[in-house]
Specification:
- This protein has 458 residues and is an alpha/beta fold.
- 40% of the residues lie in helices and 17% in strands.
- It has a single domain, classed as Glycosidases (TIM Barrel), CATH 3.20.20.80.
- The strands form 7 sheets. The protein has an 8-stranded parallel barrel with strand order 2-3-4-5-6-8-13-17, surrounded by 4 helices. A 3-stranded mixed sheet has the order 7-9-10, covered by helices on one side.
- Bound molecules: 6-O-phosphono-beta-D-glucopyranose (BG6).
- The site of 6-O-phosphono-beta-D-glucopyranose (BG6) has 15 residues, from loops.
- The site of 6-O-phosphono-beta-D-glucopyranose has 15 residues, from loops.
Amino acid sequence: MKYAFPDNFWWGSASSALQTEGAREGETTWDYWFAREPNRFHNGVGPQQTSTFYQHWKTDIQLLKQLNHNSFRTSISWARLIPDGIGEVNPEAVDFYNQVIDELNEQGITPFITLFHFDMPMAMQEIGGWENRDVVDAYARYAQICFELFGDRVLHWFTFNEPIVPVEGGYLYDFHYPNVVDFRRAATVAYHTVLAHSKAVQAYRAGHYAGEIGIVLNLTPSYPRSQNPADVKAAHIADLMFNRSFLDPVLRGEYPADLVALLKSCDQLPACKPEDGFLIAEGKIDLLGVNYYQPRRVKCRDSAVNPQAPFMPEWFFDSYEMPGRKMNPYRGWEIYEPGIYDILVNLRDNYGNPRCFISENGMGVENEQRFIENGQINDQYRIEFISEHLAWLHKGISEGCNCLGYHMWTFIDNWSWCNAYKNRYGFIQLDLKTQQRTIKKSGEWFAATALNNSFDKE
Ligand code: BG6
């Protein structure tokens, strides 16, 4: 069967500043944490070098062109642009981002720019990070500076990438700095992130810039083990906490009432100000980026909660391992292609069918060198992964979902936070020693698909 996509469909990939650029003047929480606890990073590899995009941006954009990208998302590093988060703008960073943006446009690759991809300037973390409303204001100023500097040539902005992840990693589950385990602080961080998002949207609207503004959310559909009411309730609460805590404010301009009631009943609500509601209502977006890697399967708890233990989302559900699930064993994530369709249908039926696109989808695989044939990684598994997800995406579009594109994570193998270079995601293989780039089979497949705006599959 031939899967053809609508005209002007966005074909591309995504990356982020910290994972690709290499070291900079402004310190981030990642640099700080790595200097103190290198053991937390796979093979002790930190964010200093990554894939040297800062040096190789021009040839890397040529590679994007070779992959027939018509669009590409990366982020601006707040710490590179404003090293202390709030003070002077670094002119070298302005030059760098100007060059990248101009070159992308010149090559016919539309730049999609994220303002925050997990990379908090350390100076901002030192004053409390997202727990401090002054950081919300500093972020809004940074966003406005970006709009003024680049807004004439960047027409697709994203305030945050996966804002729930720093909440989970930094304040609940100990995989990002500052490694706190405290639900109320996590809720405050999430809440202030929504306020920061809304302030950036407000500034964008006030400036009458030429393009559009959105956010990128990692939506993990919550599937209950069964239709038993206890399992269904568990899935509903997981959905409220991990998806709707950001999805509802940015699409509906308000929090779900049952999430607020739940947190209130547990005495976990963050401190709010009367004017916050108005601000959140102003944060409604033009375009939603959806990152999809895995579903979330849950069941009701099997055991009673330990009242001495820290309050956690898991007080309301247990994870459920569905027998026969397909796994990516390297990342430990389930692969469930219909999830992409379920997300789009949910957006269509419950959120007014917003303009959206798949902003990340991908498969990290360890030791890909074993698949080298004639000097090239033959990553057939990645081609299957993409084409199966695209088939479900295609079904969603044919049923009226407003999905405008598909971006893969990622274009060149990059540095994956605590996993460093363990799992490779790229269309292009990176040799860490020589920094040489070699297109994988999946890159060629994607280039052909983008060129034809279609692919064939049985
Ligand atoms: C997304 C992020 O969560 O998934 C990326 O936006 C990240 O920054 C990607 O790299 C893959 O996850 P990981 O943890 O394997 O790098």
